[in-house]
Amino acid sequence: MADVKREGGGLATAGAAPVDGGGGAGTARLLLWLVVTALGVRQLVALLRLPPGERFLDLEAWAAFGGVPRPSGELYADGGYSGTPFAALVLTPLKRAGEQGLGLGWTFGTLLLVVAVGVVAARALPRPAQGRTVLPAVPVAVALLLLSLPVRNTFFLGQTSVLPVLLVLLGCCVTRDARARGALIGVAAAFQPALLLFAVFLWCTGHRRAAGWTAGVFGAAAALAWAVLPEDSAAYWLRHPAGLGLGDPAEVANQSLYGLVLRLGLSGPVALLVLLAVAAVVCHVGLRRAVRYAEDGQTLLAVALTGCVAVAVAPVSWQHQLLWVLLTVAGRAGRGASDRYVWPVAVVLVMTLPARMLLPNMELLSPVRDNILLLTAVAAACCVPFLRRAEREFARPRPTVHAPPGASRLRGVPLLPFWRRVLTRPNLLLELLLIRVGYSAYSQVRMAAAGSRATAEAHGEQIHAIERFLLLDIEHRVNHAVFRTGWLEGFLNFYYTSFHFVVPLTVLGVLYVRRPDAYRWARTALGFATLLALLGFWLYPLAPPRLMPALGFIDTVHGVQDFSRPDYGSLTAFTNQYAAMPSLHFGWSLWCGVVVVALAPKLWMRLLGLLHPLFTVCAIVGTANHWVLDAVGGAMVVAAGFGLVHVLAGPRPRVRTGAMREPAPQPAPGAGPVPVAGSGQETGPVPEAVRDGATRAKGAGGGEPEAEGEGGRVPSPG
Prior knowledge:
This protein has helices at 22-48, 57-63, 85-91, 99-123, 137-147, 149-157, 162-173, 178-191, 197-204, 208-228, 230-239, 257-263, 268-295, 299-313, 323-327, 342-352, 355-358, 366-370, 372-382, 392-395, 428-448, 453-469, 475-484, 486-498, 502-514, 516-539, 584-599, 603-622, 628-649, 688-701, and strands spanning 6-7, 10-11, 654-655, 706-709, 712-715.
């Protein structure tokens, strides 16, 4: 992070040194800037294609497009404008521009501000470790900013929220002069009063002159606005203190502690006491941590944490003001190399995706889902254990254990060194987030892939004709036999509706706990199979037998249907009834069977694992939900999924004996050989972490099992 130096009473920053990665780095930089350009153009086109009245809503409320400009004293009359009087004063000259001209200028100006924030933030990142190459930080930072919800809302609403962030970053991470720093942060606070908290931050870090200038410039800006716009200033500071009451503070868009208290249903003195107590704790803990990281030389992280505290304790903090949360990715949390990605990935997901994609639409989870941005800000400010620069893992995280390269087990199938197979257990929080986001994306793509009824029925006729030619058209006979057998119909209906998700999730859970070495292999194969299935849904919408008119199939699960408007209860609006080829009901069940057969130590376990795909194929055919060829398609995408994992990551290490546990940490370079865990033999200096891991493994049951690959042996996860 940026180094903190007590020179001239200010925070001096040492930006990231440029990394010369050769031609590869130059190509990566060019590609990233092309991505940034595409994102910027997309944002501009999407915004300007909206009709007037649906874009620049806050800007229009201030400028009064299409009507008489607001007279003095009526800036906050209808609650449409939520900015400060100083912001209105600064932007007054822009009222002379027409709507189209102001919209274009505003959008391009905001784009430039976003790029400037990305440049300043990237330059404040820590220098890369010697000998390492990193992706160019500036285009990555700008791309993340453009994708973030606060920036997208800023474009859509026509807000000034990016400018205060840039001013604070310039004051804390660029300038060394106390007066310039105070002036920049003071002007930022004049746009967003909650940022006056940075004066406290400066005071606590020993930059009291800059803190005084911040307070003075803020007061001067407010006084100037009061002199020019006295009635509007009185309305803002007296009737709506710091914006309180401009808009409904209980709306989900208000991601502040005050909004959280209101959404929880608290009111009166109890709500006030709870709010003051929680805000005091957040201020104390958050500012204390920010000061500590500033003194540690991590200025960008300290600034981000202070901004998170400011938006949390402010009376109102709209979504477009929460850009500080994204800047907390500058902190390094996690002592292991694989854990280092957990916090950045979680923050990026929270800041770029709608909350409904991160958490299921369940009443129990609504307090978390509706306040997820606020909770992330509070967690960053008060809870996340970011590493300090003096800690060993800050620059050298604990290495990840990989399997050695091995030869292909399939003759004629080459292996691509795309990634190395990881043997350690992944972070649980990150896995849950990725699974949830992946399934949400899968559901949306599956819904978007719905074709027309005529196309789906035509494809159904094609499949039926192919099956008749291949003598596989058994669906009608099986379906009617099931319908005539009451107990069998009930069993297959229950199996079809109940085990599609339960069994794969159970298998993943068992692998995560018992077989971390194989978890990633199985999970990645399942992901590839699902992605390939989405291509099938998109390219070949297919009506299942139960939705084929005149063929006489019976929908045993949902009963007789109107083919033009099928009804499946509460799931009707959330399912694509023509996503039948390939069958993921059978594909996922076959994946479960393959994993169990490959990994289960007992014969009876393997036989039990094979029952699930057998029952599933009987259920999908007997209930008329799939054709036989749909099951064949499901088997093909599963085979392709395992094949892709084999080609990209190499063969799965074979277990020789015993249940496998997670491997002990590996030594740092030059630390000496690692003893065989549990053998009691040490042939050289051994790091304490490895020695402790070996001791624990020995106490847990003696010698370590080994994982054997085609290219040799590696210590198995212990």
